[in-house]
Write a structure and sequence with these properties.
The protein is of the alpha/beta class. The protein has a single domain, classed as TIM Barrel. Helix content is 39%, strand content 17%. It is globular. The relative contact order is 0.14. The structure holds zinc ion (2 copies).
């Protein structure tokens, strides 16, 4: 059976479809496990078009919990958040995990934590941009708060050449992943977007990054990163992702209530 633990809702402002439509799509496509992980809000900031507001957080969690009641027998539904790493908000994040008994936290290192910086790590254009991505990613991974690192190769999205900085970054992220026990996510939305030619640079998942992950013996979780129910219905891309991971010889993990375990 298929599993996905990276699913958004329209609250983030750039995903479409109600929660129940994601659940129906998952059942139709042969999933037995669906985890929601919408983009977290952060205290004192609003980011329309990127993340829900703080006021929407309780509603997000109760909507997912209600879905669990409704689809519980057919689909194992869990609730988490996809979060950047902002050191000043880690206390808030830990309290939120506790308060709502969140099932998992994904590290989605989209933006740098330096105040007033607008750098989106999917738009890295210089070596310094990439080094900042590396630095913040490793710092986040050492906190022990995150269950896995989403799209670790996001920095290659708009970057046009796999140079020494890209190589060093891949090597260090993979080494940290293995060493700290924070698995890497093989991201199917990236694979779909690459296919559709929607990235201006190398895009992700990028094969050289994943060859290094294999050399470093990294563990991998594959997720859809669904921003629309139709992403869950694309079972061809799901099967292709599994084949890529197997071909690379990477150990594939799946999320269960007991934590991450090796896939059959
Ligand atoms: Zn998103
Ligand atoms: Zn996501």
């Amino acid at each position: 059976m298929r599993k996905n633990h990276h699913t958004h809702t329209p609250r983030c402002g750039h995903a479409v479809g109600e929660e129940w439509e994601y659940a129906e799509a998952a059942i139709e496509a042969g999933y037995d496990s669906l985890g929601f992980s919408d983009h977290t809000p952060w205290p004192g900031t609003i980011s329309p078009g990127m993340r829900m507001t703080m006021q929407e957080l309780p509603d997000y969690i109760s909507a997912v919990r209600n879905l669990k009641e409704r689809y519980g027998k057919k689909l194992d539904i869990s609730c988490g958040l996809e979060c950047e790493y902002y050191p000043e908000h880690m206390t808030w994040l830990k309290e939120t995990i506790e308060e709502y008994s969140l099932d998992f936290i994904i590290l989605g290192n989209h933006f740098d934590y330096v105040q007033n910086s607008n750098l989106y790590f999917g738009n890295c254009r210089t070596k310094d941009d990439i080094i900042l991505y590396l630095k913040t990613t490793i710092s986040a991974m050492t906190t022990g708060v995150y269950d896995w690192l989403a799209h670790p190769d996001l920095y290659l999205r708009d970057y046009d050449k796999f140079d020494d900085t890209c190589l060093k970054t891949a090597r260090e992220i993979c080494y940290a992943s293995r060493n700290l026990g924070v698995p890497l996510e093989y991201n199917l939305l990236g694979l779909m977007s690459s296919r559709e030619g929607r990235f201006s640079g190398l895009g992700y998942p990028y094969h050289k990054f994943w060859e290094i992950a294999a050399e470093e013996n990294c563990s991998v979780i594959m997720n859809v990163d669904a921003h629309s129910p139709k992403h869950l219905k694309d079972t061809a891309i799901y099967d292709e992702g599994i084949k890529h991971i197997e071909k690379l010889g990477l150990k594939r993990l799946i999320y269960t209530k007991e934590g991450l375990v090796e896939a059959d």
